[in-house]
Amino acid sequence: MSSAIYSAAVDLGATSGRVILGKWAKDRLTLTEVHRFPNAFRSLGAHDYWDIGTLWHEVQTGLRKAATALPKGAKIASVGVDTWGVDYVLLNDAGRLVFPFHAYRDNRTQAGLKRLGGTRAALERIYAATGIPNVFYNTSLQLEEVVASCPAVTDIATRCLFLPDYLNYLLSGRMENELTIASTSQLLDVHSTEWSRAALDHFHIPAQWFSKPVLSGAKLGTVTSIPELKGTRVIAVPGHDTACAYDAMPAAPDGSDLFLSSGTWSLVGFESDTPVLGAEALAARVANERIGDGRYRPLTNVIGFWLLEGVLKAFASRPKNEGEWVKLNAAAAALPAPKVLLDVADPAFANPPSMRAAIDAHLRKHRGQAPKNLAGYVRLICDSLGRGHANAKAAFERMTGRTFKRILVVGGGSRNRLMCQATADAAGIPVVSFSLEGTAVGNLARQLIALRAVKDLAAFRRLHGAHLEQTVYQPRG
Q1: Does residue 315 lie in a domain region?
Q2: Residues 313 and 257 in one domain
Q3: Most CB atoms closer than 10 Å: which of 216, 251, 254, 329?
């Protein structure tokens, strides 16, 4: 019998999901993508929703494919789930959904966002309690709106589970809140692993909807809903995909690396034993999210390639394969640098009806000229993201007294040479791009640690990092 260990990572993003089979043998991890599927929220009336039934169907399909992809006699030892942050479901005692599954880009939170943002004392109090800034997608604002618009929900719902928690429940039958995904909510106490009573009371959210969050590595039981995975352990990996992406990076032990998870969002941050708080952190919108072991992952959110995803909708002729993307990026790189960059922290880019129109309006406001073609928008977006990442680095160094020596990049954006070079140029330090399926690798790493196949995260980073391909972008002039 093979001494290899097989684990499955369910990795769901806002625009696509996949199930990846990981094989750990001879201190080396190999990945096989067994299932990939598109994901998108849908509008119904004035609101936006995720299709939870389709997501669950695709997860089951992927896990069944993982089981059939195994060598003869092998079994899947464990499965872990990570997803995007903040979104949740409300359940009753029987585990049934009692409220629609809203998407975080739904505009229903705008009134609460303005109300909290307009009261300085309340804003500072909530930030001091949770370490999470006031952002339109926060679970706190979503739940506040639900309770205000549908008060009866407090009598019907008995549990609130974030999306990875809910999928863990569907797999294992056990309801638990996991720490990293809980930390995206603006409801967790920044100084402990408990829920913040001050935040729950402020947003009028029932405390009994939540249980004390479990740390990454908690064993939730075995799969009960998919016969092909009978006996497979369900492990609470970092439920937030960004936490998984950070775990995957072969970071320097001295803490001198800044992390960039680049995709729909650009998430720039670092690992810390303590949170980053105070007036400057609040102004910089630093989110003190958590690592699977309970420590901190201070980060700031830059809009990311959501800008490009939106702009593409305005062009009939778009890249359809890798070769066409390479051609487009080469055309963009050959253009002169734009004189006016986008402020990638501008909330106008959050979910506009037309991203191209929003960008053009932003440029007009700042006396810039709109690009003439798609290559021009690509160049503008990549250079603007590079400047946004550099601004985040400078702010963190100022607030913490640290000096970052490298920026490590994973995620879909790590393959974009134009953006990586723009980041190195703007930040003035090397950018290291890894050929790494970051979220899936971090997911599998925590499973392997829980299974005691690997001693700890430092050991995994050392072993896995030795086999990674990397590209280093040195800053120019």
Answers
A1: yes
A2: yes
A3: 216
**How confident is the model over 115-148, as pLDDT tens digits?**
999 999 999 999 999 999 999 999 999 999 999 9
pLDDT of residue 1: 38
Residue 304 CA, distance from chain mean position: 12
Alpha carbons 231 and 224: distance in angstroms, whole number? 8
Residues designated as active site: 241
Identify residue 416 by its one-letter amino acid code: N
Cβ pair 404, 258 in contact under 8 A: yes
| DSSP structure string for 176-218 | --BHHHHTTTT-B-TTSSSB-HHHHHHTT--GGG--PPBPTTE
- Is 0.90 topped by the overall pTM? no
- Which of these, 319, 424, 338, lies nearest to 381 by C-alpha position? 338
Count CB-CB contacts under 10 A for residue 310: 22
**Amino acid at residue number 386:** G
Longest dimension (CA), the chain: 68
Q: Rounded to whole angstroms, how far apart are CA atoms 435 and 442?
A: 14
Q: How many residues does the chain have?
A: 477
Q: Which of 170, 3, 17, 177 is nearest to 77 (CA)?
A: 3
* Paired strand residues for 11: 18, 82
212 & 69 share domain: yes
Cβ-based burial of 472 (10 A; exposed 0-12, middle 13-18, buried ≥19): exposed
In 100-138, which ranges are continuous DSSP H helix? 110-117, 120-130
Give strand pairing partners of 188.
195
The answer to whether 200 and 187 are in contact (CB under 8 A) is yes
What tokens were used for 77? Answer: 């030892």
Indicate whether 299 belongs to any domain. yes
Closest listed residue to residue 385, CA positions, set 472, 309, 305 = 305
pLDDT at 259: 95
Pairwise CA distance, residues 242 & 262, whole Å = 10
Q: pLDDT band at residue 2, thresholds of 50, 70 and 90?
A: low
Place of tokens 């991890």: 29
Q: Is the pLDDT of residue 318 over 80?
A: yes
CATH number at residue 50: 3.30.420.40
Domains: count for the chain: 2
Residues 336 and 415 grouped into a single domain: yes
Average pLDDT over residues 176-182: 98
Tell me: the pLDDT tens digits for 347-363? 899 889 999 999 999 99
- Model confidence at 289, pLDDT cuts 50, 70, 90, reads very high
> Among candidates 421, 477, 449, which has minimal Cα distance to 80?
449
CB 129 within 8 A of CB 121: no
